[in-house]
Design brief:
This protein is 20% helix and 30% strand. By secondary structure, the chain is α/β, with parallel strands linked by helices. The chain has a 7-stranded mixed beta sheet, with helices on both faces. Helix 3 packs across helix 6. It is elongated.
Length: 357
């Protein structure tokens, strides 16, 4: 079967600011590989041939600039009209001409990372002969997501979009991956914003046309900085990262991962759970742990970076202390001796001096 997939990449990622001010969430690096590339690789392994990216114009520009390896996939863009976000349902409706009406297709949220077996999910969908199948995943706090209740035959009896924590009917949430039969397009109105979660799924529940596929493997929504860091930690634990850096007096505490052209000065301690992007430069006697440094960042002598995310092309001066929960936006410049309070957030291209705190 010539399987097609729609990737929904139209979100604004407001909770990931300031990092998302300068890149869409789908391009956030996960252990030095863009999230979209991870998605392409998994789709290609599951016999997907065509991918339609449902995006805003700016997201399309960013994706094309990154030139991500397509893994043999044919990639097309379906762009939302300027100044008119279409929502999840409207974005799917807009891909109708690309997808066609011949066979079921995949749709997935571009900001989730999961090792879902799409082939098994498709087989279950075809066995149930239903309009839609949702991948489901069990989480501790389901209030951020759409929550479902299942019948014994995996038919979804109820779908509740982001219920309050007191009224949550269970812990099986919408994991953001779907198999749709082409008749799904009949349920989505044309020419307006449509939430497939709030408008379409409840109708499918009433008609017994919505089923669930329970996924018990790896799944993460990188909607918050804590989730983003935790996903990197999980993959470092899984794969072990790289420990082969050789430098004068450099101490590497695994797991860590380095991209190409990383330079580390003498006496510096890196790790554990640290990711250094392409062309990152670390000075002498620097201490970095539990942190993600994006490409082109320069950390000067005697600086400390603990449990933080540092954007692309950032300059960190001497004896700077970046504390727990801090996020520094792309191309910011932090002068010598600055000590950040925990949880500080620095806008892109901002200059920070000791007097600034």
């Amino acid at each position: 079967m010539h399987l097609k997939a729609v990737i929904l990449a139209g979100g604004f990622a407001t909770r990931l600011r300031p990092l998302s001010c300068t890149r869409p969430k789908i391009l956030f690096p996960i252990v030095n590989k863009p999230l979209l590339q991870w998605t392409y690789e998994r789709l290609a392994k599951n016999n997907v041939k065509d991918v339609i990216l449902a995006v805003f114009y700016q997201t399309e520009v960013h994706i094309k600039q990154h030139r991500i390896p397509r893994c043999g996939l044919q990639v097309y863009f379906s762009r939302d009209p300027l100044r008119k976000p279409l929502g999840t349902g409207g974005a799917i409706k807009r891909t109708e001409k690309h997808v066609g009406h011949d066979s079921p297709f995949l749709a997935l949220n571009g900001d989730t990372f999961a090792d879902i077996d799409y082939s098994k999910m498709l087989n279950q969908h075809e066995k149930n002969k239903c309009t839609a199948t949702i991948a489901l995943h069990e989480v501790q706090d389901p209030s951020r997501y759409g929550v479902t209740t299942l019948a014994r035959d995996n038919r979804i009896k109820g779908f509740f979009e982001k219920p309050s924590s007191r009224r949550t009917p269970g812990n099986l949430i919408n994991a953001g991956t779907y198999v749709f039969s082409p008749r799904i397009f009949k349920y989505i109105p044309e020419g307006r914003t449509v939430s497939i979660e709030r408008e379409v799924f409840p109708k499918l529940v009433e008609e017994h046309e919505l089923y669930g596929y329970v996924h018990r493997g790896l799944w993460t929504d990188i909607g918050k900085p804590e989730d983003y860091k935790e996903l990197n930690r999980t993959l470092l634990d899984k794969d072990g990262g790289r420990l082969d850096y050789k430098g004068e007096g450099v101490i590497i505490k695994g797991p860590v991962d380095f991209d190409k052209d990383v330079r580390i000065g003498r006496g510096s301690i890196i790790g554990p759970y640290t990711v250094l992007g392409h062309n990152v430069t670390i000075g002498n006697f620097v201490d970095i742990e539990n942190s993600i440094l994006l490409p082109g960042t320069d950390v000067s002598d005697h600086a400390q970076v603990h449990n933080a995310i540092i954007g692309e092309g950032v300059y960190i001066g001497k004896k700077v202390n970046v504390r727990e929960g801090c996020i520094v936006g792309d191309h910011a410049r932090v002068e010598d001796n600055v000590s950040f309070p925990g949880g500080a957030s620095i806008c892109p291209a901002k200059e920070v001096s000791e007097e600034g705190f």
